Amino acid sequence: MRSAAAPGPVGGRAKRALDLAVALPLALLLTPAMLAIAVWIRRDSPGPALYRQERIGYAGRPFRLLKFRTMVVGAEHMGAGLAVTHDDDRITRAGAVLRRLSLDELPQLWNIVAGDMSLVGPRPTVAAQVERYDARQRRRLLARPGLTGAAQVSGRNAIPWSERIEIDLAWIDGWSMGRDLAVLARTAWVVLRREGTYKGPRGGFDLPGPGAADG
């Protein structure tokens, strides 16, 4: 799964410095809130508070993505699998609130601190999807995956993966710190408006071959 050697992730040391300057204080500051959310999840439905899933990161390297669990245990093996819709009966009561407010993504601050992710970048996906990328689409792996990204503020899960990849490639080709800051500002607006949380009629994985995921 590992890609050919790359010169370094998009943004280099400057982008990494911003990630640490923002993510580490936020992760520490929000630790009490995350612990409270974890207790709520455990009381709301049987199972762990955190959901861990192997995703593919920079240069094709796998890592364990952290999220708060928003669905019943084993949900990926039920119903629509990795695809999730707004009326999905696998979503727990706590999970519905966490998804609506995008709070399920908070543990990924620790993925950023660890260096597996960045504040801004393409959302990470699973190996089965990356295997469907063509050579051009694999350029998406030139960046560390992001907590948010250009595609996330341009439709999020409501647009098909082929379109999301094109948006991410354009972001990679035109990367600047200013663009990252603009994405972060737009993310707050998208979250407040609760846009693109679910795949809707156009969203989902549309590259040739099987596979679907919510990202």
The low-confidence parts are none
Figure out the total of helices.
7
- Number of separate structural domains: 1
Strand order in the sheet with the most strands: 1-2
Beta strand count: 4
Helix share bin: 25-40%
Q: Kindly provide the radius of gyration, computed on alpha-carbon positions and rounded to a whole number of angstroms.
A: 16 Å
Compute the average pLDDT: 88
Question: How much of the sequence is in beta strands?
Answer: 5-15%
> How far apart are the first and last residues' alpha carbons, in Å?
19 Å
H/E order of the elements?
A: HHEEHHEHEHH
Name the structural class: mainly alpha
Morphology call: globular
What does this structure look like?
- There is one protein chain.
- This protein has 7 helices and 4 strands; from the N terminus they run ααββααβαβαα.
- By secondary structure, the chain is mainly α.
- The protein has one domain.
- Strand 1 and strand 2 form a beta hairpin.
- Helix 1 packs across helix 4.
- The mean pLDDT is 88.
